[in-house]
Amino acid sequence: MSIKKTLRNIDIRKKKVLVRVDFNVPLNKNLEITDDKRIVEAIPTIKYLLENKAAVILMSHLGRPKGKVVPKMSLEPVSIRLGELLGKFVKFIGGDCIDSKSKKIASNLKYGEVLLLENLRFHPEEEGVFFSNDSNEFAMENFAKELASMGNVFIQDAFGTIHRRHASTIYIVKHIEDSAIGLLVEKELKFFNDMLENPVRPFLAILGGAKVSDKINIIENLLNKVDSIIIGGAMAYTFLKSQGVSTGFSLVEDEKLDLAGELIRRAKEKKIDFLLPIDHTVIDKFDYSNRQIYEDTKIQITVDEAIPEKFMGVDLGPMSIEKFSEIIKFSKTIIWNGPVGVFEIDKFSKGTLKIAKNIATATDEGAISIIGGGDSVSAISRSGIDKRITHISTGGGASLKLLEGKELPGISVIPEINEIKKKC
Ligand code: AMP
Q1: Atom of ligand 1 at shortest distance to CA of 280?
Q2: For the whole prediction, is pTM greater than 0.90?
Q3: Of all protein residues, whose CA lies closest to atom 3 belonging to ligand 1?
Q4: Residues annotated catalytic, as ranges
Q5: pLDDT (tens digit, 9 = 90+) per residue, 75-107?
Q6: Where does 191-404 sit in CATH, by number?
Q7: Which residues contact 271 (CB under 8 A, 6 or more apart)?
Q8: Model confidence at 423: pLDDT above 50
Q9: How far is the CA of 22 from the centre of ligand 1 (A)?
Q10: pLDDT above 80 for 208
Q11: Which of 61, 124, 186, 302 has a 20 to 30 Å separation from 254 between CA atoms?
Q12: What is the pLDDT of residue 422?
């Protein structure tokens, strides 16, 4: 297995170190940070660099400004929170991350000081998607060159964006003396690699969410790794329908029925427990796009796995919750991605919250638990049990790619230990 350089393999003393972090934190209407986990998780790398006398220049995006300056997506509130967490003043000048002012401050930055550049995505060249294909590469390359000119070394520590082919995650590496991954990315990779390559058994995967199509590659890859798979959420109905079970007007991907049936067949062949719900919470009317029910919406629990014609499944039923709880209890490695019901509505969040609690209890009793980002993370936070989980990933999309067994673009470009940097 190739071993990528980490910041410990690089001489950073008295260097200007450009660090790609993921400070894409949620802000409320008053521009206050409502969850600072991503800033907190970046602290070990920043502290390591400061303790080793580097000058630290941080780069991040925030939100989706689509290549334009959107003042409410400024990183200023992040610079203040970061300063509080570091117990140290963080320079922030806003404006344009590559203009002469930013470059001057970066060039005068002393070792042991921190500068946070303004939102990279105020520049369309960061994502590149806003240009025609021909000019894309050129624009991204030039933007990356400008960023790289501010430092000597690049550290990739933005796990949340590491699956994206952006200027500050891919192109920058070609234009700087040396690059490595940071401590957060190293930690994320270690948890996912250890789990996928060397799990303590029994190994259970719980997959939920809206679409089978988003998670087919994950299921295929996990069929070679796990002992059991629990499928919940809307995904479960496509699998049930593939087995001839009635699913009412639940969300079903009809074009994936054959594939769903094939995956169940393969799981059986490999003697993997492939568990689908055995009962459901169902409703007869739903404003799904706004995740709202009507005053006269009927809510019922089915007697078995079949859903009546005029109803739609929105959560697990009590028998499924009990059955899945037992499996979770006896598992020693648990990976979870995706809610098992329309958890945004309290009445349909029972299954998801119960799964979260059971995973926490199994972890208390010695299991290793990994939550793969996105909605499952918000369910865990809602249940107030985040501290009891072994690892909560900071990257939804990136963790999905790792579960698919794919390499992440932002990791591929980082040199391996002992690899000599080629001249650009
Ligand atoms: P994903 O982004 O694929 O993880 O999907 C998350 C979404 O799946 C959430 O917004 C849930 O509301 C939705 N979801 C979960 N269970 C169901 C269900 N039974 N029917 C419809 N949507 C669901």
Answers
A1: 19
A2: yes
A3: 209
A4: 38, 211, 374, 397
A5: 999 999 999 999 999 999 999 999 999 999 999
A6: 3.40.50.1260
A7: none
A8: no
A9: 25
A10: yes
A11: 302
A12: 54
List the structure tokens of 264: 């169940």
Domains of the chain, by residue range, sit at 2-184, 191-404
- Six-digit token string for 69: 């300056």
Closest residue by CA, ligand 1 atom 6: 209
In angstroms, the CA 379 to CA 31 distance is 23
The residue to which tokens 């996990």 are assigned: 222
Distance CA 237, CA 250 (A): 7
Domains 2-184 and 191-404 share a fold: yes
What average pLDDT score do residues 369-389 get?
Answer: 85
Question: From ligand 1's centre to the CA of 305, what distance in Å?
Answer: 18
Tokens of 321: 């919750």
Which tokens sit at 333? 């490695």
Structure confidence by residue, pLDDT tens digits, 263-276: 999 999 999 999 99
- The pLDDT value recorded for residue 88 is 96
What the block records as the tokens of 182 is 């940071």
211 lines ligand 1 (CB under 6 A): yes
Question: Could you identify the atom of ligand 1 that is nearest to the CA of residue 313?
Answer: 19
- Give the β-pairing of 90-92 and 114-116: parallel
Region of 136 (left: φ > 0; alpha: ψ -120 to 50; beta: rest) is: alpha
Domain 2-184 has CATH 3.40.50.1260: yes
Cβ of 198: how many Cβ atoms within 10 Å? 8
Q: Identify the residue whose C-alpha is closest to ligand 1 atom 5.
A: 209
H helix and E strand count, the chain: 13, 15
Cα-to-centroid distance, 338 and ligand 1 (Å): 7
CA of 275 to the centre of ligand 1 (A): 18
CB 321 within 8 A of CB 350: yes
Q: Which helix (H) or strand (E) holds 316?
A: strand 312-316
- Write down the H helix ranges in 254-394: 257-269, 318-329, 350-364, 375-382
Q: Answer yes or no: is the C-beta of 233 below 6 A from any ligand 1 atom.
A: yes
Q: Which of 392, 391, 387 is nearest to 368 (CA)?
A: 391
What is the best residue among 293, 375, 380, 403 to mutate for testing ligand 1's pocket, by most ligand atoms within 8 Å of CB? 375
> What distance in angstroms lies between residue 286's CA and the mean position of ligand 1's atoms?
13
SS3 272: coil
Residue 98: closest CA among 43, 172, 204: 172
Substitution site in 212, 252, 342 for ligand 1 pocket (most atoms within 8 Å of beta carbon): 342
Element (H, E) at 115: strand 114-116
